[in-house]
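Supplementary Note 3. Input sequence used for the single-chain structure prediction.
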Amino acid sequence: MPPLKPIKRKELIRYLRKIGFKGPYSGGRHQFMQKEKLTLTLPNPHKSDIGPEFLSKILKQANITRDEWEKL
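The predicted structure, written as discrete structure tokens, is reproduced below.
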């Protein structure tokens, strides 16, 4: 399986919407997205991309497998 690549925040949001997440909604310090009872906190927008390690943590919290992610 190829390693995860860095991704832009806008692309992450677009892919999460494809999977069924709604949002992003404004929260306290971070925006979040929801899917049924699952709430996923999004990183704040920065100039740099979201790195592979952080993307892996986000996918784990969202209960998305690597296979599902690669199919997007």
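Residues 9-19 form the longest helix (11 residues). DSSP finds three helices and three strands in the chain.
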